Amino acid sequence: MLVQLDAALDKLAAASGPIKQRLLMAAAHVVSADGVLLTQEAELLRAVAASLAVVVAAGYLGALAYAAVQPSIPSANQPLASWLVAHHLTNGLASYWEADSVTLDTGDKVTVSSVEIDRFDKLIPYKWETDTTQYDPKLHDARFVVAGGPAADLPIAGLARAAIHTFGSPSHIYQVGSYTILVWNYNILGHLD
Known about the structure:
Elements: H1 2-14, H2 17-32, H3 39-68, H4 78-86, E1 91-94, H5 96-105, E2 111-117, E3 123-125, E4 144-148, H6 159-167, E5 172-176, E6 179-183
Parallel strand pairs: 1-2, 1-4
Antiparallel strand pairs: 2-3, 4-6, 5-6
Helix pairs in contact: 1-3, 2-3, 4-5
């Protein structure tokens, strides 16, 4: 009888998840139909449930192993971060989305603080979730603004225009993919309101 049970459990292990669930529910219903649960019946249900748990766990483990060996996807701002590091631009300003991710992507080699556009079309510090000392010109020397990028279709698209309105004409303008990097020869933090 145990040989037959093992063979049945092996077939059950090969069945799909919904079929296993229906079989387990059916077995539980049949076993408990008379209102009495015998020890052998309980052991059979436990064996069926255990085999289902092993198969489900193996499926999850296989999915986890597959995901673990896949190459990681670089952040959308990684090319920008690499370009800033390569050009020794270490402190600047950008919209919220580029600021934090570039700082993270460079391992703090580049610090980019968030700015937003005020009602006068000038840049101002974006103080939500931000250390306000990052905008202190006595502590930091920001020389660039990053505009454009993946969020360029949002209202922040006027960031380059607002930067020029706030800081004057930049000494250099670079295009890196969809990003525009405006660079000044002086610390622009002193011009933020």
